[in-house]
Amino acid sequence: MHGQRQRHSSGESDLSVSDDLHYKVDKTPPPFLCLLLALQQVIMTIPGSLSIPMLLAELLCADDKALVRAHLIGITFFMCGLATLIQTVLGIRLPIIQGGSFTIIPPVIALMSLDKWKCPADPANYSQHLWKDRMKEIQGNLMLASLVQVFLGCTGLMGLLLRYIGPLSVAPTIALIGLSLTHVVVFFAKVQWGIASLTVIFPMDVLYPTLYEHRHDQDALTISHHSPVINRVISDYICVSAFIFQVLMAMVVSWLTSHILTVTEVFPNNVNSSYYMARTDVRLHVLREAPWITFPYPFEFGLPTVSAAGFLGMLAATLSSVVESIGDYYAAARICHAPIPPPSAMNRAIAIEGVASVFSGMMGAGHATTSYTHNTGAIGITKVASLRVFQLAGVLLIVCSMSSKVGAVLTLVPDPVVGGVLGVILGLVASVGLSIAFYADMKSSRNMTVLGVSLFFGLTLPQWVSELSRRHSHRFRSSDLDQILKVVLGTPMTVGGIMGCILDNVIPGTPEERGLVKWRQMQSAPNDSCSSQIYDIPYITDFLRKIKVCSYLPVSPTYAGHGCTCWPCRRSRDENGADSNAVTKNGNVVCELKTIDNHVV
């Protein structure tokens, strides 16, 4: 293959892989360098940690949105740090940052559009009681849906579901998260389109030469034992990471520009002016009123409430987030040159992510947790895959959450800058979702039809449901079933994902045409450059090996049963506990894994 060199020995391959990273997963950089790299990871979480609380504050009918934003940002930082620590210590044990999930926003919007939760027409009637009641509804349904995720991870049932989920099911689900939130971008950006456009254009203008050079270098540095599919995935992750860093730079430049225009009174200090919310001094009272020391605690806003409509909407969002995270786990292993995560590690990661989302609901963050792709992609730039760096980043996020001043400072970001950042991030989410479709053969009329119909219905059906509910609002008050239909059918990613999954499994097509071959190839290419012991839980794995029943638990490191998240069958283990090439099903050897050009076939 062009750009690749033949491996003559396993030792040569291992050396080439190891030299690509400065610090592997099980290595620790010097303390000062470790701190700097951890700070870099923390900074890269800011766009997501800033955007989601600001979106939620607009939906909650808060009386003082600025103070609520600052408080929610603090809780989000705390949950990002806590989820990262739990995942890197007990979960997948790969260098991954956990943060707020955008998948939760569409069902929250659909839930808050019910007559029961609509904001009063007069903003003067907004109060703490109103927004806390709405937050409790989000908390309860989020916790309940996350418990289902914990169950799927602990039982290994997610592997069964994934047999029916391919690229054409995932692509419209992820893409519609970004495409369905365009009205939110308009809400923030319409204050001053010039500043919002600057936030969007700046990273584009600066980044294009960088991305072109990186793509060229990536092709030249292709690692021999990776397939073209895996190389493309790794390259995309690295480019996403570089892009997010440029977005941060753009946010700072736009914020500074708004400050200059505020000081020079180009943006008048007049509440009635359309440019007033573009000023940088509108929310200075939050910086003065926010306490220096604070600490999130469970059920701060009261006991959560639940509803059937809210639960089903959150459940669809949770399952979408799980599928996205599974892809991130495999990609993280690729970038870090780690072995393929075993079924036990994948099951454990799904369960731990669910546990973190339950905690997120308890704390009142208002969102689930998921892995951040751009933080994982940063490994391709820094060449540092040290697990300690990401664990330290989790600690720093928790420390930042203990002072409301941090959230208050981020609350000062003007609305048009937020609109620009949201436009870039949601556009990136949509494009990443659509790029997943290219695992399939997009020259096939079958696949183009499946993707097009899924996207079309994902955008139009929720719009029709919204218009119908406005015309006949009395019908949506009468029964829980009406509210369930409104929330489920009013969530674009749910409609698009279900439509894509049904069409992809019903319409005949070969595995190659549907993209399942490339999809599995990304998850199953072998990599033996470091020990699979990185997936063992520290201190307790040796103890678990002494307890025979643990080998039947899908989340145990000693698990030897079914429940793999990518194959309907599993690799067997030899008497020493190492993976062998034999594939077993129902306890019998059914085939041997063969390789051609170092690829599993």
TrEMBL record:
Gene Ontology molecular function: transmembrane transporter activity
Domain of life: Eukaryota
Chief location bin: membrane
Record keywords: Membrane, Transmembrane, Transmembrane helix
Membrane topology: Multi-pass membrane protein
GO cellular component, as recorded: membrane
The name this protein goes by in its record: Solute carrier family 23 member 2
Source species: Pomacea canaliculata
